[in-house]
Every structure is written in C-alpha cells, then in structure tokens.
Design a protein that fits this description.
Layout: H1 7-15, E1 20-24, E2 27-30, H2 31-48, E3 55-59, H3 64-75, E4 80-82, H4 89-99, E5 101-107, H5 111-119, E6 126-130, E7 143-145, H6 146-151, E8 167-173, E9 181-186, H7 187-201, E10 209-212, H8 219-232, E11 235-238, H9 244-253, E12 258-261, H10 263-271, E13 285-288, H11 295-305, E14 310-314, E15 321-324, E16 338-339
Parallel strand pairs: 1-11, 3-4, 3-5, 5-6, 6-7, 10-11, 10-12, 12-13, 13-14
Antiparallel strand pairs: 1-2, 8-9, 14-15, 15-16
Helix pairs in contact: 1-2, 1-8, 2-3, 4-5, 7-8, 10-11
Length: about 350
C-alpha cells in the first residue's frame, strides 16, 4: 500500500481544477495551476539531481511558493524540512546539517541569512531562490531561480510509491534543553490529521475560504490552515504577516469563513479600534491553539462575531492536532476538548 500527502492537492485539482486554491494580494491561483506548478517543481528537483528520499528544506513565508514547493517535493518523493523564516544564518546552517537537507528553497527577503547558512553545509548542494516578483528570473551566483526552473521543467505526473509510514515532513521543535530536534512526521500522520481537521474538528467543504496567517512552517498553520482546506477543495487566502487591519481587510473582501489563530491574534482583532467597520458576517469556523485561550477573550470574540471558537491542543510530534473542542457538543470554556477520532 502506498500513500503520499500530495494526494490531497491532486484530488482537489482533479475535482475542482478551475476553483481558486490560493490567493495572495490581488492574485488568485487555481487548483489546476498550483498542481501543475507543484508537478513541475518535482520535475525540476529531479533535473537538479535531487534523488527521491533526499530532504528538501524550505525557508518561505505564507506565499504560494510554500505550497508549491511543499507538495512538489512530495511529488518527487522528497521529505520536506520547513524552517522558521526568522532563523539566523547559524541556526539555518545547524538545521540544514542536522536534517541532511540537500536543497534549500529560500525567499528572497531572507536571502542574506539563507546564503550564509547554506554556504556552511557541504552536503546542501542546491540553493533555490523564490522571488516575490514573478517576472524576476534572476538568482545569485551558485543558486537557481524557482520560477525559472519550474518554467523549464517537465512535470512529474504520477505520485511516487511512498509508504504510509515513510517520512513526509521533518518539523524542528525546541524542547526545554539543548538544540532543536527534528520530529519525523509520516505521510499517514499528516494525511489523517488534515482529514480529521477538515471533517471532524470543523466541517470544511469546497465553499470554505480560509485565512492562513499562522506560519505555514509551523504545524498548526501547515495542517489546519493549508492542508485541511486543500483536502476539502476550499480556498486559502495567504497573509504572510499578521496585522489586524490586513486580516480584517482580507476577511471582508474574500468573505473568509474559516479563521485559525493563537490567542494573541484574537486579542489584537478584538482591540483593533476600527474593527466595527468590517463585515465579518460570513465567519463560520474559528479555531484556536498554540497557547491557552483566556476565557474572557473567547467569550468576547464569540459574542461580538456570533461564532463559537473551538480550542484545541496539539504539538509538532502529533501533526499537530491531538484534541479539540467538539463542534456538536456544548463548549466547556477553558477546555482543550476531547482526543480527536482515531
């Protein structure tokens, strides 16, 4: 039996090819387009000499390039190592070394630290630069441009025969002591968690419009705000940096009905002076995690926007959702709910 996480994107691209998969700014990308770019990125990795099973690190904010590189690497059979975009050069070098990554996909806004870290790791052979300007096909000496290699690549059209227990993603998590350690998450871990999140935690469908401002390099944002909506055939609106005004603008203009955040985000939205001028009547599902939600914030947000924030608990090692408030039971404020099914 084989299983590959990119099946989530493949199925939605088959069923909803012209539907918007990703939005950022005034750019909408259909499922067909995102899927094609992911398949071509897989082909580009092969052309560079990256072998199936070798690890690909990504240093990308919440931009379409993250989703394309993420699922493209899975199409190529390469486990993904998402890196925090605020890492220093020393930290990047350590994680590239420890994860045995052979390629680094880096956003041009973080290129200085990326180049410095990359240059210190001999086995990391390929630096792939993702540019904010899609018309900019340049790259520094010794690097390649992500858009350019996608444009020139043959797509990988078949999913590799990865097994359910094969490593799909390595998430680095800092414990109380020592350096960060990589949690190896399997294709089944992430596939099942995305399906559980989209069907049992909340009920997502092709009409879902999710605002993804939680970092996609983190397990909460990656599974709940990217993979789960994609599994449902929904649309993901990307916000690289959370700010209350930007979040409100996107929620209103895109008619967002699914929002996930940490408690400080909910507090910032509640306290935004111009919050009352926005129409958030379409908001249906709100989830919170990452830290305990203060009772008064939850009750105030629920009352103001007529929603029912569901609170959960998870960790990197559990892909990440472990327990959640049940949407079909009375909410116990201050509780992290019940263990998820399965």
């Amino acid at each position: 039996m084989s299983l590959n996480l990119a099946l989530l994107l493949r199925e939605s691209a088959t069923n909803y090819p012209q539907k918007t998969a990703l939005s950022i700014g005034d750019v909408d990308l259909s499922y067909e387009t995102v899927h094609d770019f992911a398949q071509r990125f897989a082909g580009a990795l092969g052309s560079l000499g990256v072998e199936p099973g070798e690890h690909v690190a990504v240093l990308l904010p919440n931009v379409p390039h993250f989703t394309i590189a993420y699922f493209g690497a899975h199409y190529a059979g390469n486990p993904v190592v998402p890196l925090n975009v605020l890492l220093s050069a020393d930290e990047i070098a350590y994680l590239l070394e420890d994860s045995e990554a052979v390629a680094l996909v880096a956003w041009d806004g973080f290129l200085k630290a990326a180049e410095a870290g990359f240059s210190r790791v001999a086995h990391c052979r390929h630096l792939i630069v993702a540019r904010a300007n899609p018309a900019d096909l340049t790259a520094p000496e010794g690097a390649v441009n992500m858009a350019a290699i996608i444009a020139g690549a043959e797509p990988v059209t078949e999913l590799p025969a990865t097994g359910p227990d094969d490593t799909a993603v390595i998430l680095y998590t800092s414990g109380t002591t020592g350096k960060p350690k990589g949690a190896e998450l399997t294709h089944f871990n992430l596939f099942f968690n995305a399906l559980a999140s989209s069907t049992r935690v909340v009920a997502l469908d092709p009409g879902t419009v999710a605002l993804a401002t939680l970092p996609l390099f983190h397990s909460f944002g990656q599974t709940v705000m990217q993979n789960a909506p994609i599994a449902a055939g929904g649309s993901v609106v990307l916000l690289p940096r959370f700010e209350p005004k930007a979040a409100f603008d996107l929620m209103e203009s895109h008619h967002v009905n699914f929002f996930g955040g940490v408690p400080t985000m909910y507090l910032a939205l509640l306290n935004y002076p111009e919050a009352d001028q926005y129409d958030l009547s379409g908001l249906q599902w709100c989830v919170s995690g990452g830290a305990p939600m203060p009772v008064e914030i939850m009750r105030a947000f629920d009352e103001k926007y007529r929603v029912n924030i569901l609170e959960g608990y998870g960790l990197s090692e559990t892909s990440p959702v472990a327990s959640f408030s049940a949407r079909d039971r009375p909410k116990k404020v201050g509780s992290i709910g019940l263990p998820i099914w399965g």
